[in-house]
Amino acid sequence: MIGYEIFVRSFADSNDDGIGDFKGIAQKVDYFKMLGVDLIWLTPHFKSPSYHGYDIIDYFDTNVSFGTLADFRDMVDKLHANGIKIVIDLPFNHVSDRHPWFKAAMNGEKPYVDYFLWAQPHFNLKEKRHWDEELLWHTRNGKTYYGVFGGSSPDLNYENPEVVQKSLEIVEFWLKQGVDGFRFDAAKHIYDYDIKEGKFRYDHEKNVAYWQLVMDRARQIKGEDVFAVTEVWDDPEIVDRYAKTIGCSFNFYFTEAIRESMQHGAVYKIVDCFQRTLTKKPYLPSNFTGNHDMHRLAQLLPHEEQRKVFFGLLMTTPGVPFIYYGDELGMKGQYDSTFTEDVIEPFPWYASLSGEGQAFWKAVRFNRAFTGASVEEHLNREDSLLKEVINWTKFRKENDWLTNAWVEHVTHNTFTIAYTVTDGDNGFRVYVNIAGHHETFEGVSLKAYEVKVL
């Protein structure tokens, strides 16, 4: 199984309004099949006031810019008919401040007041997020409420059983619309405020217990075939706790370690990552090229040969690999937490950025016309990154046992890493040279930027 993250607004436009939509995605099935992906992850497609969609107004309806609920179901049917599964993004930690629940709560209406967390005398209302110094508490019309991700996204109060039940109803609703599973956004933030102590604190035990409830409900509806992957951006040992319950977790350390190692010219961080995250585990890791919350792969690895090495590592390691849309083309983009649009630019189908299906909802700064980062240009170039990625996805499908494999016998020198991948019955050894010069390691000769499977 090979995953592909799509920012819906930027991918493919079916009705010439410049905005990507469900019908546009359905019309690009041939591209998914050529690329070799068979699992699509859609970023939030719900009714929302923002361009990114992570602040939801209605969990039971679609963003009208993307299409109707019927259009969504048609897209799901088209993907399924072509052997492609679909998972949707579920941001359960918070809602939009325009959500009816929050509006009612601000008006003092029961039961909705108890759907949110309000200031108490012993709370430190000046407390800030530990990662960027933004305030946790927000005041409006004389009322102060908790919102880890900003004042426009008030946190839901999962100490309230009614909120827990509402979230389970949302899971059930979308599974019955045909989706195959979920990406659980900000999974460690469901319980992240200690009411007794009046301060921010992750309660991993309560979080994991909540996700167990969610997975139990999902499996009651969909069976064991339901696929779920969690976002827990933390130390590998913390990730393990969530992944054991949910079944799969994005391996942020993988992405960070390879990017940093190739920038700095030494494999030591890759070695540490493989030894901590890719050994035999009771869940599937999900290694990935990037996502909407980080710099684009090509922004940090400017040479295409480096990115080919990244994809070689991605496709020869265990679990469920994910490609962020456009990384197979070398799309660039600088991430800024206050301006995230540069990493979600329109997917370039054509060299001119103009043609049937081309989304163009925003101006582009990084992936301009005729700069080489389009499907058209890659297909017309023999040694392109896209063609290399297609070769690797073919390799991956020929070795589908890799999903349930693990890594062992990791060895290295400064520029080369070697590792054995096995599921107990199948296996091979991989040699990777991340340097721009020839290397010989364990008797294996490696050209610059070469991945060799033996």
Automatic annotation (TrEMBL):
GO terms for molecular function: alpha-amylase activity. Residues 5-396 form the Glycosyl hydrolase family 13 catalytic domain. GO terms for biological process: oligosaccharide catabolic process. InterPro entries: GH, GH13_cat_dom, O16G_dom_2. Keywords: Glycosidase, Hydrolase. Coiled coil: none annotated. The keyword Hydrolase applies. SMART domains: Aamy (SM00642). It comes from the Bacteria. Belongs to the glycosyl hydrolase 13 family. PANTHER family: ALPHA-AMYLASE FAMILY MEMBER, NEUTRAL AND BASIC AMINO ACID TRANSPORT PROTEIN RBAT. This is Glycosidase. It comes from Fervidobacterium gondwanense DSM 13020. The lineage of its organism: Bacteria, Thermotogati, Thermotogota, Thermotogae, Thermotogales.
